[in-house]
Amino acid sequence: MKNLYIVCFCFLAVCLTNAQERYLTKSGEITFFSESPLENIAAKNSQVLSIVDAGKKQMAISILMKSFMFEKALMQEHFNENYVESDKYPKATFRGAILNFDTITDKETKVEVKGKLTIHGITKEMVIKALAVKKDNAIVMQGDFFITLSDFNVDIPSVVEKNIAKEIKVSFNFNHQPFKK
Amino acid sequence: MKNLLTLALLVLINSHFYAQDDLLDVLDAETPETENIVTATFKGTRIVNGHSVENRKNKELEFIIAHRFGAINTGIEDLFGLDISNIRFSFEYGLSDNLTAGLSRASVEKTYEGFLKYSLLKQKTGANAFPFAVSLFGSVAAKSEKAIPGFERTFVESLFYTAQVLIARKINSSVSFQLTPTFVNRNLTATFEDPHSIFALGIGTRVKVSKRVSLNAEYFPQFNKLKSIDATNSLAFGIDIETGGHVFQIILANSRRMVEKAFITETTGDFFAGDIHLGFNLSRTF
Q1: What confidence tens digit (pLDDT) does each residue in B44-66 have?
Q2: Model ipTM value
Q3: Cβ A61–B58 below 8 Å, yes or no?
Q4: CATH number of the domain at B36-285, out of 2.30.29.30, 2.40.160.40, 3.30.70.100, 2.40.30.10?
Q5: For residue B50, which of B257, B244, B189 has the smallest C-alpha distance?
Q6: Domain spans of chain B, in order of start
Q7: Which domains does chain A have, with CATH numbers?
Q8: What is the pLDDT of residues A55-99, one digit of tens each?
Q9: Which pTM was predicted?
Q10: Under a CB-based contact definition with an 8 Å cutoff, are residues B42 and B206 in contact?
Q11: How far is B122 from chain A (nearest CA, A)?
């Protein structure tokens, strides 16, 4: 009987440690910025889901394309209808390994996340640099990187070529909190 | 020994569960169900001649310049109608995301028109799903052309009213339909037999052929018609081409008119007998 208790305890302990190793945010922020001679286009999404698995040193991000908010309603409509085709490809995702996860402390540390970014149905291998910090039991990660629209088959018609940058700056800020299921 | 086995089994089950759930699957499970408003049911605020459920958004100004040429079956002498041209220009402004006000001037009968369009209900998916969008449209058109001597009229007698309920559904990303119950009232009729009030049911559709091009069609069968003219039902086809803030519509219609009261109730052309008018709408949103 005593042994059974030990078994149960072990089982629970394993469960708990597993659960405690994950950190999640449902209100991560991603902004992108396109700078061109004719106009600047910016959009912000504050409902990004991101999860960090400390045990496996991995992270995953899920971005609903329709949650990007633009300054002009017409830009937002064109973004969803003509460029990223949100009805066909509602989400962009990223899944990768945090290469130097163990260096994350309560001081900001540079980390690299190597993984696969999927936008508009196209998947690309990427290494994204981020600043990470572990504070009050939360893992905060932020940074920026550039993506090339043609890599993800996002066409820019010639008439608006001068309005949209070929390389888009993407910035992110995730405040992951301990996630218990 | 038995306990040891149980322990091994439990650890296995546990790690198995653990390994199985992919991080993206966890995110999918954690994604809150969001309310998703269906947008871009039509590319423009017009399907062809008639209004679509689309509104201009808050503080957006749209300028539409539209031409309709003479009938193609007038032949080579009028260069298939191109010598004859009607024009209408219109300023339309978003007072809010859901309320658009417009002012326009059409060359035929020197008509001034003011309208309001209100987006009452949105088509939604996800949480609070709703199957279609509903907008309300109301307009007053004033004929300002000088009267023929003997047929003088007052200002009030120059007025026409149109009320429409626009009910639209985006079936999928490329196909949309709209039903448009319409009421047109004229204060002054040409003869005593002409009804003051005419009811019609507009039917419109669009099919996207590429990301920026769609084919549109629109038909306005009337339940009662003007008797003093040989009135037919308005039938029109269009191609929408969208480039940035512009929507360019190329139109083939049996009517040369662009104001609701005119193309819905005063059309006399027979599309299939060659009374086809080429036209275009050019829209620019600022």
Answers
A1: 899 999 999 999 888 889 999 99
A2: 0.73
A3: no
A4: 2.40.160.40
A5: B257
A6: 1-31, 36-285
A7: 22-178 (2.40.128.110)
A8: 889 999 999 999 999 988 888 888 998 889 888 899 999 999 999
A9: 0.81
A10: yes
A11: 15
